């Protein structure tokens, strides 16, 4: 990565995450990075390209965090706990403003938009990783359990920037422990009574 591109990415990441994608214009990024408009467009032909690059960098950072968290763990359950701990650590970071991907998709609801697509790609990867880890932990129904984990994470990410993150993180980790505790419990579907409601 060239020095100019690195400065652009650093500035864009800080501004987009702290202030939002729509509210930060190209001129703000150029000024913060100390580059010319031509330099920006040489690296990123459009603002959409810059936004996708920002989300791609965020995705790569999270993938690295997850890989670090799960490496060397004795069991799948320990790996699940380590990933949850990594998420909780992120929520307690100064300047935390929620999930970059949930924030982005709120601003770009069109499923065909490249920003929306980047969010979906990241979330699908994360769901697959958590499903794999829960299967390794002995979960008999890893897919619904992984969806439960992701929903807990989403809620913690939303709440963690609104209030004191400490109880949010504690609640999140207790929820993950609940998933692990009941991993051998069969999923029960309520029976229909046959009576008209």
UniProtKB/TrEMBL annotation:
InterPro entries: Homeodomain-like_sf (IPR009057), HTH_TetR (IPR001647), Tet_transcr_reg_TetR-rel_C_sf (IPR036271), TetR_C (IPR011075). Keywords: DNA-binding, Transcription, Transcription regulation. It holds the Pfam family TetR_C_13. The keyword Calcium does not apply. GO terms for molecular function: DNA binding. Residues 25-44 bind DNA. Residues 2-62 form the HTH tetR-type domain. The keyword Cell cycle does not apply. PANTHER family: HTH-TYPE TRANSCRIPTIONAL REGULATOR YJDC, TRANSCRIPTIONAL REGULATORY PROTEIN. This is TetR/AcrR family transcriptional regulator.
